[in-house]
Design a protein that fits this description.
about 375 residues; Aspartate Aminotransferase, domain 2; globular; 2 domains; binds pyridoxal-5'-phosphate; alpha/beta; seven-stranded mixed beta sheet; Aspartate Aminotransferase, domain 1; 12 strands; about 40% helix
């Protein structure tokens, strides 16, 4: 079956008891066993829940890996992968990194003896040079957050694997609709299901999908031991989101391309970061790595200082000033003071997150209205 058919039918088998075309939501926290010490498929909801299992089956299938693992948030999913490391191990991560992941790696996992080094993963030679004997995990985001930098996944994975380094990809921005890192050889993919998977700004969740069962089993052990699982109702919403994700993402990509081209011509905009623009340094890699679109997030720099950028964010009417992305509602935010305020000023400068940078997530409103909204905000803010 093709991708979109699987998004609807895998993990969504009709309820055998009632014939309901939508599987029921199982709220039970515990499950009756027939014999002591011989566990049935489900025993306790932290260890496994039928509604969560359905979502895990679908996302695993769509990413091209084994059955996934669903978490209470994207950060819980990322933490799960980090917990597979040991004291003394090093994570090599891209500079263009979600602020929450930056905070986890610099202020939490460090306390457990896991170090972090940031590199510009757009340059494969930088990855090659940065790998040390302690490096055990290469962590990639492509497109990166918030600069939409593109990393050549196949190239980076080949370098890491040659040196025995595991590769994890945060596929939140691309979604499996556009890019499937496991098919390019990555070992594990994570998602903030809060974004394109849920798609409606009404569910907080995360997912991990491993390419091989042995890694999945290790991560499952950690998930069950630590307990940050996705609840049944959230699992249901995530499953429902997956059914329409392809259509939403494709349409959102189309609108984002239109807005990127519009902003690139706008007199009050000095720079547009979107891999769909031919002028973007990662455009040719993105063209072969992303199928049918370049994502629904773009960033741009405005002419003027931080105050002008912040003002633009408060002058839009349809683009709501809020963090997060990937939903049907368009959002606008100021990375330096919001999503990436967790960066040290030095790392923010080194990464190129300017004070005049604005990030937008493009939803499903009519693109003409979105264009007009940005235009009036840019005109009134300066
Ligand atoms: C790329 C990326 N990864 C991970 C996360 C964290 O996900 P959550 O907010 O669901 O914990 C986010 C949240 O914005 C994100 O943008």
């Amino acid at each position: 079956m093709k991708f979109q058919t699987r998004a609807i039918h895998v993990g969504n088998e009709k309820d055998p008891q009632t014939g309901a075309v939508v599987p029921p939501i199982h709220l039970a926290t515990t499950f009756v066993q027939s014999v002591p010490g011989v566990w049935e498929e489900f025993d306790y909801s932290r260890s496994g829940n039928p509604t969560r299992a359905n979502f895990e089956k679908t996302i695993g299938d769509l990413e091209g890996g084994v059955t996934g693992l669903a978490f209470a948030s994207g950060m819980a999913a990322i933490t799960n992968v980090m917990m597979s490391l040991r004291p003394g191990d090093q994570v090599l991560a891209g500079r263009d990194l979600y602020g929450g992941t930056y905070r986890l790696l610099h202020h939490v996992t460090k306390k457990f003896g896991i170090t972090v080094q940031l590199v510009d993963t757009r340059e494969l030679s930088q990855i090659e040079q940065a790998i040390e004997p302690a490096t055990k995990l290469l962590w990639l985001e492509t497109p990166g957050n918030p600069l939409l930098s593109i990393t050549d996944l196949a190239g980076a994975i080949a370098i890491a694997h040659e040196r025995g380094v595991m590769v994890g990809v945060d596929n939140t921005f691309a979604t499996p609709v556009l890019t499937r890192p496991l098919e390019l050889g990555a070992d594990v993919v994570v998602h903030s299901a809060t974004k394109f998977i849920g798609g409606h700004s009404d569910v907080l969740g995360g997912a991990v999908v491993a390419r091989e069962k042995s890694l999945r089993d290790r991560l499952y052990f950690l998930q069950n031991a630590t307990g940050s699982v996705l609840g049944p109702f959230e699992s249901y919403l995530a499953s429902r989101g997956l059914k329409t994700m392809t259509l939403r993402v494709r349409e959102q990509c189309r609108s984002t391309q239109v807005l990127a081209e519009f902003l690139a011509r706008h007199p009050r905009v000095t720079k547009v970061l979107y891999p769909g623009l031919a002028s973007h340094p990662g455009h040719s890699i993105a063209s072969r790595q992303m199928a049918g679109g370049f994502g629904a997030v773009l960033s741009f720099e405005v002419a003027g200082d931080i105050d002008v950028a912040k003002k633009v964010c408060t002058k839009t009417h349809l683009f709501q000033l809020a963090v997060s992305l990937g939903a049907v509602e368009s959002l606008i935010e100021h990375p330096a003071s919001m999503t990436h305020a967790t960066y040290s000023p030095a790392d923010r400068r080194a990464s190129g997150i300017e004070d005049s940078l604005i990030r937008i997530s493009v939803g499903l409103e009519d693109v003409d209205d979105l264009k007009e909204d940005l235009d009036q905000a840019l005109s009134t803010a300066s």
